[in-house]
Amino acid sequence: MPHRLDATDWKIIKELQLDGNLTNVALAGRVGLSPPPCLRRVRALEQAGLITGYTALIDEPALGFDVTGFVLVGLHSQAEADLRAFENLVLSWPMVREAYMLSGESDYILKCVAKDLPAFQDFILNELTSAPNVASVKTNLAIRRAKQAPGIPL
Fold first, then answer.
1. How far is CA 27 from CA 38, 44, 89, in A?
2. What is the pLDDT of residue 72?
3. What does the alpha-carbon distance between residue 17 and residue 46 come to, in Å, rounded to a whole number?
4. For 130-148, b where at least 16 C-beta lie within 10 A, e where not — what string?
5. 139: closest CA among 131, 130, 117?
6. Is the distance from CB of 77 to CB of 107 less than 8 angstroms?
7. What pLDDT was estimated at residue 1?
8. Do residues 90 and 98 make contact, with C-beta atoms less than 8 angstroms apart?
9. What distance, in Å, lies between the first and last C-alpha atoms of the chain?
10. What is the torsional sign of CA 136, 97, 83, 101?
């Protein structure tokens, strides 16, 4: 059964999307509630699976991760068991930060973050292309990030 959201729930989601580090007191002030009902609403959104976690946005280059690459992967087989096997392998690769199954020419797109180009190339050549069921790999290197807006458009 879908969770029904009112205007206050949407405000909570918007504010937490902008700053997941807000204290409950600060969040309550921003959405026009006192802290106890605000906390109850946040917990309800979490329990409903609408808020799935909290994370920090990291400046990758400032921490020595200078390469962001997007990799289009084609598979030999798209049988459900083969898709699951590939996804399980993707989960084991720390360099892969996001992965999406696609429609169209490629089966998956992977967002990878690496310390440098040799590390990225090593991953592509020695892990990804040699993985079972991988038929094709096309890489694109990011020149710069023009926008980063996680979450949904509110």
1. 8, 15, 39
2. 98
3. 13
4. eeebbeebeeeeeeeeeee
5. 117
6. no
7. 44
8. no
9. 23
10. negative
Cα torsion 129, 131, 136, 142: sign: negative
Rounded (5°) CA angle 87-103-154: 90
pLDDT value for 119? 98
What tens digit of pLDDT does each residue of 17-55 get? 999 999 999 999 999 999 999 999 999 999 999 999 999
Structure tokens at 147: 């926008």
Write out the two tokens for 84: 């699951």
DSSP character at residue 49: T
Mean pLDDT, the chain, rounded, equals 96
Q: What is the distance between the alpha carbons of residues 18 and 85, in angstroms, rounded to a whole number?
A: 35
For residue range 125-148, list pLDDT tens digits in order: 999 999 999 999 999 999 999 999
83: which residues sit within 8 A by CB, 6+ positions away? 75, 101, 107
Could you identify the residue written with the tokens 């609403």? 41
Evaluate if residue 152 carries a pLDDT over 70. yes
Distance CA 11, CA 40 (A): 14
